[in-house]
Every structure is written in C-alpha cells, then in structure tokens.
# Entry
Amino acid sequence: MATATRLLSGEDVAKRLEAVPGAVVETAEDWVTLAPEKLVEAARFLHDDRDTDGRFLNGVSGVDRYDYFEVVYHISSLAHNHTLVLKVRADHDEPEVSSVSGVWRGAHLQEREIFDLLGVRFSGHPNLKRMFLWEGFPGHPLRKDFMGLPGGVSPGLKRFPKEDPEQWAGEFRGN
Amino acid sequence: MAIKTEPLVVNIGPQHPSTHGVFRMRVTLDGELITDAEMVIGYLHRSMEKLAEERTWTQNIPFTDRMDYLAAMTGNFAYCITVEKLAGIEVPERAEYLRVIFAELQRIASHAMANGTFVNDCGAWQTPLFYMFREREKILDLFEMTCGARLTLNYMRIGGVAFDIPDEFLPQLQLLVDELPDRFDEYDQLLVDNEILLMRSRDIGIISAEDAMNASLSGPMLRGSGVAWDVRKGDPYGVYDRFDFEIPVGHTGDCFDRFMVRMAEVRQSLSIIKQAMEQLPPGNHCAEVPLNFRPPEGEIYCRIESPKGELGYYLISDGSPFPFRFHVRSPSLINLSALKEMVVGQTVADAIVTLGSIDINVGEVDR
# Structure
C-alpha cells in the first residue's frame, strides 16, 4: 500500500476515452480537455469502467483564464490507486457546462460554489443557486475582472486583469 | 388513524450551539420527522481564495490557519507541501519529522474536540467535553511553547518550519504521550460502554460505503463506512511511508462508527508520534528559500489527510510572486454533500447527532 498514487498521463486517459468517440479535444501531458457536449458521457464512462474505476471525485475547481473559463475535475480510483485530471472549457460571455452531479453526488456542492464565485452555469444541476453569497450579489468575485462592490467601502482590488508577470522581474522583497 | 399535520419549516441555526459555528439547516417537518432538509451556508465566507490571489505565496500561509481553525497545523502542512511540490523545493529531514509530530498532535486535538462536542450533542452535557478539552489544552501548550500561538499557529513555512523546537519540548511531549493512552482508556470506559451514547448514536445517520464514495466523503466519514482509505497510507506525503500504523474502519457507517474511528485514530496518532520522536534526526529546520520566491509556471493538485478528511490544494502559478488560482478542496464542505440523504426520515434530535458526527468546521466550509 505504501506507494504513491499514480497520475495517469493525458495520453493514457485519451486512450481509455476512445470508447466515447469525439470526447477528447486536446491531450496535454497530465490532463485531457474534453468536448463540453461529451462531458457527462465521458464522466459516466470513467466512473463505470472497470479498469479506470473513477468512482471517487476528489474535487471540482473553476479557473478564470481571461478568454475562457476552465472547469477542472480531479478523479481517482481508491482500488487501483491512480488519479486523472479532466478539463472542460466554457465560453467567457455565456459560460455553461453540463453538470456531473448525476454521476458523482459529491460534485453537487462544488458546482454550486463555482456558479456562485465564478458565474459558470451548470445545466442539469438540481439546485443551482448562490451558496456563499446572497441572491442579488452583483457579480462573481473570483472572476479576474471583479474589482470589488460598486460604491462599496473597500477601495477595490489591486490586481488588474491581464497583468504582465514581467513587471515583477525587478527587486521584490517578498517571503 | 394517523393524524394529518401541516408541514412545518424550522430553521436550526445559524446561532445554535449544536451547529458548531454559524451553520444553518432549514428543515421541513412532518410532526417530528424531517421530510426535507437544506443547508444554508456562507455566514463565515471571507473570500480567501480571492484574497490569496493578491498576496505572495508566503503571505498566504496565515489564511490556511483560519480555514480549519481547530486544525491549523494540517492546513499549513497541506499548503506548504503543495507549494514545495510545485516549485520543487527539498525539505530538510528534521523539518519533515517535526511536521509529522505537529500534524499528529493536531489530529489528536481536533479529534478530541470532535468527539467531545459529538457526545455533547448526544446529551452528555459538558462533562466529557471538558475532559477532552483538558487533553487538547496540553497539546496547545506544546504549540505555544514552540511557536507562541495556540490556535492560529502559522508555524510551517515553504521549505520547512518556522522555528526549531525548544529544549523542554521533547520531555513534555514524552510525558503527554505516556499519559494520553490511559486517559483515552478512561474515556472508552466512560463513553463507549455507555448505554445512552449507544442508543443515541447507533444506527443513526447511516451511509453505505458506495454512497460515501459517490458523495466524495473522506476522512473518518469514509472510514466509518468501511472503506479503508487514508491518504497517509494510500498516497504517502512527507515521511509518512516510514511509520507503521493502521487504518481503523467502521462497519455500518453510523454515527457511532465515526465516533469510534476517531477514538481509534487518536491511538494510531500517538503511535506515529512515538516513532517520529525516536527517529527525529538533528539538522536544519528550514530550507533556504529565495527572498524573491516565484514558482515556475504550472499547476498542481496535492492532498493530505487532515483530521476532517482529504484536504487538497489546487494551485496555479503564472510565474509571478502571487498565485494565479488558489483553490481549496475543503473536507468540511464536501463531507456535507450527503447531509440531506442522511437526515431525511430522521427526527430533529437525530439530525443534530448526525451533524455532530460529520465534524464540520464552518471556517473551512465557508472559507
């Protein structure tokens, strides 16, 4: 038992997903990007497949990549002790992804959290509403262009969208 | 003939001692039976994931204390180990051992708190809780001796730990390790054989192994249902592969099993601490991390076994001194995934016991 969990490479996952034609659109070293319309089918396949046994969903995260949103699924098998990463992209103006909460019950709350903080809608979710913030809260705070509440007491956030990391190349007294 | 009653909606919390913080459960009742339950959270939401995006990698360590404030050490540990993996930093051996000792002490403190409040929810008003508090207090004294803080510790750093242990630490720890097994034997006699506790917690809030896995439950919740999964064994991080310990599991997945798993884990933690004390090597307690610390571009998901379950960090670096994305897979939130299924069909009194056995920390639920 005392061996570390194996992370399946993108190629390996893509090979397993050949059973769902057209599901994989891009293969990276450590993850695969799925076609949004095939997400639930591919998730169901990975969940039920004996060799993959992706019955444990570690977590769902949402990322604002400026031009698009990315939803990341970390899936693992406790029996085979391996893990794999799926990604799905959503359009930045009207972000919508199919919900996988029918496959994994554990996705339910995390999808609500992503909807609340990033504004990605999950079609087919049984109870999609705000979780941490109240109904009517303006905007979605984890988006990169969210700059604090309008007219609020806070001066807003410092970090602007599309920041150039090179500007930090000079002397920086951190740590 | 059954009496027809109107459905009644009752708010449990947010200001209610049995919800362990500002957590609200809105239940619909038919007589005394719960027919529908919904949780309302967000009262303690501090937007840490957003705040972290404009602080440096090191400045984010105090946030991890304030998520699960009853287990700050493991919060520190999870974040630091993730950043180290992302940046490829080697941690000195002594620091690895100190981290294990403090993480296991924290697990004992957190489980003592969890079991104390759980028994409190079952109706053993305050007495067992204060016994558990007494043990937790001694562990907090050890923390205070080392890093000056008792609750929000901020002890671990990227590359090691902030301070080496003082000279009087190991003798004090030895005293504690010798004393605690007797104490916990006493609590076993006091609680485990207690008729009232058995009646209040057996066959209540049952969740099967299959459902627990499907709902992404982790930690004592998953092990209580009979799945022998522990990240310390399944995916060893730090130096956990050098210790010999067991994974206690339950059988039926009820509240009592979760309570017993926590009781048994305390003993396993004590055994790990003993082994770590014997193996503790001399040397440096922190690696040299550059002042201008910037991990290379990339992303990583890394998890540890916190007292509540699988605590994971999903971090993305864009090469700047700040994280691009800082996402926490918080076990407290995800362990609530199956709450509705667990409480529907029960009475209100049993729902309180079920919630107590999940051992949530609202600081980590809302973040």
In short: Chain B has a mean pLDDT of 88. Chain B is about 45% helix and 15% strand.
